[in-house]
Here is the input.
Amino acid sequence: MRNILAVAVGGLLGTGLRLVFDLAFPHADHEFPLETLLVNLVGAFALGWLAGGLWRRPSTPAWLKAGVGSGVLGSFTTLSAVMASLVVLEREGAHLTAALYLVVSVLAGLAAAAAGLWLGSRIGRRRMPDTITDSGETL
Amino acid sequence: MTALSPLVIATVLVAGSLGAVIRYLLSRRFPVRPGHLPGGILIVNVVGSAVAGVVIGLAERAAVSADWRLILVTGFCGGLTTFSTWSVETIELLDGGRWRAALLNVFVTLVLGFAAAGAGYLLAR
Here is the structure.
């Protein structure tokens, strides 16, 4: 139940953040949907970074993963907006823009997720000292 | 575009939150298993794309207002579907050497998602 509540609160935040991007970078029907691309790249990188690092630590609580991963980042990013934009671009006859948008979204999105996972796992592997033997200068 | 009322913005956020909870419950019900596609995420992404297509089609012939389009497409469908989980799960499949499952996850999601959005739009407009 706590996990579901965390997802609901995270979903409010993620949707709100995406709405801010939508209103800040509006686009006409025939134009490249830059705001959705930005949102998806940032979200894929952030989730990769967390999944590669913090999520792998046994001490990370389940509600935090649910609230931030499924809630905030899951609802911040969107696949339906990509598909809807492709349909609208095709209707407008902007085939080249549609093709470019699809290819860039998929390739850059996967690259962002991979970069996030790689960076996250580097940080996740760094071990913290169990006991501090000096006055704390090593930290 | 007219200024958005606080009520519409609040409804968009609640609709997005509801979509996120449905996605979470389905992803728990149909989790990622070895040898299977990430089922729950595929289902919500295809269903959300279909609903978005239908609402955009309805909005085009003024059967749905601009406010409701924002609530349903940006709010509910945006919250229900996800790009981040889809891309991270694809890379994790690749990372585990399961490149065929990764390619399948990309193509099945894109083909079904686009077909669902296109069919929904064409049927509703």
Observations:
- Residues 95-125 of chain A form the longest helix (31 residues).
- Residues 2-125 of chain A form one domain.
- The two ends of chain A are 38 Å apart (CA to CA).
- Chain A touches chain B through 54 residues (CB under 8 Å).
